[in-house]
Amino acid sequence: MRLAAITILGGLMLAGGTPAFADDPVEGQKVARMCQTCHGIDGLARMPIAPNIGGEPKEYLEAQLMAFKTGAREHEMMTVVASTLSAQQISDVAAWYASHTASASLPAGTSEDEAPSECVSCHGIDGISIALNAPNLAGEANTYIVTQLRAFRIGTRKHEIMSEIAAKLSDEQIRQFADWYSKVNLQITREE
Ligand code: HEC
Ligand code: HEC
């Protein structure tokens, strides 16, 4: 569903002549060398505290990198990384990771009915997000999901939708939802 939306958007941008932001995924691949120890060159995370970023929407990746750069979102590693990047490099590296495709499969023996009904409308049953501005949760490390939900809950990370949702979650719910999405199998691929 999201792919279809992206294809339509891409088509509109092409039809309109100049895309909203000029970006170059090939240049972005060079920038991604700075990211690969933690996020992998394809965006499959190499450490539990770092999220998978391959196949996320370009707008989402760019917005998060700009948030780290401006201080709207803070993290000891990412704040440093983002501060060294220009807006052009951010646009390019976001385009590189967005040029990948994320797909997911539920582990054997799980039923779709167990998926958290509070989350699936945006993040999908398998954690491949349906809403364009929402990131994938499929296969994120349990600890990453828990950390982000707690950050939204206490206000150290802010977002009009997620802050409100997280404010109402108990520790037990946070644990359950993190368990569900973290056990999904994630694949990240890229067509050359
Ligand atoms: C030393 C490890 C490290 C390096 C290098 C690194 N990151 Fe990160 N990145 C992290 C961690 C850890 C987080 C999670 C931050 C948090 O908990 O808020 C993160 C978060 C992010 C996010 C937010 C994703 C989301 O789902 O919200 C993006 C986007 C991102 N990194 C992109 C990059 C890019 C692009 C580079 C290279 C230019 C890079 N990172 C380099 C460790 C790293
Ligand atoms: C109405 C849509 C919507 C619903 C419902 C929703 N989310 Fe989100 N979620 C978002 C959006 C949009 C973001 C991106 C926030 C940002 O830009 O910082 C997000 C971000 C997140 C993140 C951060 C992921 C990352 O990569 O950094 C987590 C974790 C998360 N949501 C978990 C949940 C859980 C668990 C539920 C169910 C209780 C839920 N969300 C329900 C829209 C939604």
UniProtKB/TrEMBL annotation:
<feature type="signal peptide">
    <location>
        <begin position="1"/>
        <end position="22"/>
    </location>
</feature>
<protein>
    <submittedName>
        <fullName>Cytochrome C</fullName>
    </submittedName>
</protein>
<dbReference type="Pfam" id="PF00034">
    <property type="entry name" value="Cytochrom_C"/>
</dbReference>
<keyword id="KW-0349">Heme</keyword>
<keyword id="KW-0249">Electron transport</keyword>
<dbReference type="InterPro" id="IPR036909">
    <property type="entry name" value="Cyt_c-like_dom_sf"/>
</dbReference>
<feature type="domain" description="Cytochrome c">
    <location>
        <begin position="23"/>
        <end position="101"/>
    </location>
</feature>
<dbReference type="InterPro" id="IPR050597">
    <property type="entry name" value="Cytochrome_c_Oxidase_Subunit"/>
</dbReference>
<dbReference type="InterPro" id="IPR009056">
    <property type="entry name" value="Cyt_c-like_dom"/>
</dbReference>
<keyword id="KW-0813">Transport</keyword>
<keyword id="KW-0732">Signal</keyword>
<keyword id="KW-0408">Iron</keyword>
<feature type="domain" description="Cytochrome c">
    <location>
        <begin position="104"/>
        <end position="185"/>
    </location>
</feature>
<keyword id="KW-0479">Metal-binding</keyword>
